[in-house]
């Protein structure tokens, strides 16, 4: 029996980011998306291409989401943006089921840990990606950025992590595991008290200061850093 928790011990929650996390960066979804976003900026704000690219980058850095800046400063309809960017991505051609991902998720002990998706994308995109990866069955729910509710709540705002915890039905920060490829998202999660692995894929330069205690190169390394979440592990907390 585990002895790390006292009294009733509900399942912990393992939050998974989706994009560039459940599938590798090499699928280049990020590039496809960046291109559609640049086009959206150029078209809808009537900007020359270089200005569109620059502003996109600026909003992404300031707000974590390009669309946040568009809505704040340009009265863009976020659902129109979603339709022309996220939903317009030709994902069927690039995101394929990955046996190693299914194996990894299947090896997590769901009697101890609830799997939950946690994304800054809108729900359509989240559902589409996990469907293409054929991993929907492993996740009990998803916390997404609701583009229909302005101003947005998204990672790394503390309110977004609290929303995720509420939706996943977990009360204590120390009962939350998390993996994300975003430095800022990982840093904030750890500050709040989550146990966090920052995914820095091979070929991506590791940050000078790590975002959090655990930094991994492959999603499979979760087995090593969070063994207590996997089947066949000894009692947790040791
Ligand atoms: Mg990501």
TrEMBL record:
Gene3D superfamilies, A to Z: 1.10.150.450, HAD superfamily/HAD-like (3.40.50.1000)
Q: Which InterPro entries match?
A: HAD-like_sf (IPR036412), HAD-SF_hydro_IA (IPR006439), HAD_sf (IPR023214), Pyr-5-nucltdase (IPR010237), SSM1_domain (IPR052791)
Please, which domain of life does this record's source organism belong to?
Answer: Eukaryota
Gene Ontology BP terms: nucleotide catabolic process; pyrimidine nucleobase metabolic process
Q: Which residues form the signal peptide?
A: none
* GO MF annotations in UniProt: nucleotidase activity
- The coiled-coil segments of this chain are none
What NCBIfam families does the database record attribute to this sequence?
HAD-SF-IA-v3 (TIGR01509), Pyr-5-nucltdase (TIGR01993)
State the name under which the record lists this protein.
Answer: Pyrimidine 5-nucleotidase
The scientific name of the source species is: Thermothelomyces thermophilus (strain ATCC 42464 / BCRC 31852 / DSM 1799)
